[in-house]
Specification:
The protein is α/β, with parallel strands linked by helices. Helix 1 runs antiparallel to helix 2. The longest helix is centred in the last third of the chain and has 18 residues. The chain is globular and about 45 Å long.
Length: 121
């Protein structure tokens, strides 16, 4: 834990290095919320349909969601969100004429309802 999802607009697909951003996000989770490096799992998903407002103009969106076990302070969660927003600004630039919307959300997950496993091949 944490489970990290990064949803992004198709216009951003070739504009950033997903692996480099994923490693940077994982590292900031380790520093700010004391996550174990091997527990950080980041999934990237391209969303084909993104509509902002009334659909006027050219917009792109990058949304990062953390699902973490309870126990972190509001200050730690805020530091994580702010740090990830700064990373997004470093790693992803909007195309000329495009407005990029970025957001980060950190949510507590129900520890009793969550299970995970891994298998070695």
């Amino acid at each position: 834990m944490p489970q990290i999802s990064v949803d992004y607009s198709p216009s951003l697909a070739g504009s950033f290095d997903r692996r480099a951003l994923g490693v940077a996000i994982n590292r900031i989770a380790v520093r700010t919320i004391d996550a174990k490096p091997e527990a950080c799992k980041t999934l990237f998903r391209q969303n084909d349909d993104v509509v902002v407002g009334e659909g006027e103009g050219v917009d792109a969106q990058l949304y990062v969601e953390f699902q973490i076990f309870p126990g972190r302070t509001p200050e730690a969660k805020a530091a994580l969100s702010e740090g990830v927003l700064a990373l997004l600004a470093e790693h992803v630039a909007p195309a000329p004429g495009t407005r990029l919307h970025t957001a980060v959300y950190v949510a507590d997950i129900d520890r009793d309802a969550y299970r995970s496993t891994s298998a070695q091949g």
